[in-house]
């Protein structure tokens, strides 16, 4: 874990490959290849993984057997597989799981094709495409007035003690996602 990170007023700090070289120990790159990896890397608990694997299989069975509702065919963006309308059902089946965690899980599960009307998911099921996540680790982070902290990797996590964002400062994400795990987040 790196020490504190302070982004000076009126400046931009990109957290990217160059920053990883400048801040040794600040970035971990995690590769998730199975659903069990969500628990191994502390994205979800083992119970949450088990619940989501079961729920994803159930909503897939429901979607494949529900012929009472006609919808024009839709496809999963960027994949070309049919969209069965399972995501809203998964949201309803997992009310206690925060949406960013659920979204990450679903990104891996939605491209797995059902066989014989079921997904046949287990925690050991391998992903069609591994997920790479950059986890940035700092003791405390301060983004001074009018400064920008920019995350450029596709999937990012910021783990820190205190996160202080001063007036006019902002956090930008040019990739797909950012999850913040901080003991306190304050604006000033």
Protein described:
This protein is an alpha/beta fold. The protein has 2 domains: 5-26 and 138-187, no CATH class; 35-128, no CATH class. The protein has helices at residues 17-22, 36-40, 46-65, 86-93, 99-109; strands at residues 5-7, 12-15, 27-34, 126-137, 141-143, 148-151, 155-165, 170-173, 177-187. The strands form 2 sheets. Strands 1, 3, 4, 5, 7 and 9 form a 6-stranded mixed sheet that branches. Strands 2-6-8 form a 3-stranded parallel sheet. Helix 3 packs across helix 4. The model has no long low-confidence stretch (mean pLDDT 89).
Secondary structure: elements and pairs:
Elements: E1 5-7, E2 12-15, H1 17-22, E3 27-34, H2 36-40, H3 46-65, H4 86-93, H5 99-109, E4 126-137, E5 141-143, E6 148-151, E7 155-165, E8 170-173, E9 177-187
Parallel strand pairs: 1-5, 2-6, 4-7, 5-7, 6-8, 7-9
Antiparallel strand pairs: 3-4
Q: Secondary-structure element order, as H and E? A: EEHEHHHHEEEEEE
The total domain count is: 2
Based on the structure, what is the oligomeric state of the protein chains? single chain
> What ranges have pLDDT less than 50 throughout 5 or more consecutive residues?
none
Structural class of the secondary structure composition?
A: alpha/beta
- If you compute it from the alpha carbons, what radius of gyration comes out, rounded to the nearest whole angstrom? 19 Å
How much of the sequence is in beta strands? 25-35%
The coarse silhouette is elongated
């Amino acid at each position: 874990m790196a020490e504190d990170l302070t982004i000076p007023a009126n400046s931009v700090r990109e957290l990217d490959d160059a920053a990883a070289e400048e801040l040794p120990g600040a970035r971990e790159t995690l590769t998730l290849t199975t659903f069990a990896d969500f628990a191994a890397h502390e994205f979800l608990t083992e119970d949450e993984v088990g619940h989501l694997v079961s729920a994803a299989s159930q909503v897939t069975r429901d979607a494949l057997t529900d012929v009472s509702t006609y919808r024009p065919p839709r496809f999963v963006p960027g994949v070309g597989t049919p969209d069965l309308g399972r995501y809203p059902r998964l949201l309803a089946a997992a009310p206690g799981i925060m949406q960013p965690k659920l979204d990450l899980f679903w990104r891996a599960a939605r491209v797995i094709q059902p066989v014989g009307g079921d997904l046949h998911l287990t925690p050991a099921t391998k992903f069609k495409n591994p997920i790479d996540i950059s986890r940035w680790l700092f003791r405390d982070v301060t983004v001074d007035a009018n400064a920008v902290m920019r995350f450029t990797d596709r999937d990012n996590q910021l783990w820190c003690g205190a996160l202080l964002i001063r007036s006019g400062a902002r956090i930008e994400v040019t990739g797909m996602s950012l999850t913040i795990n901080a003991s306190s987040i304050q604006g000033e």
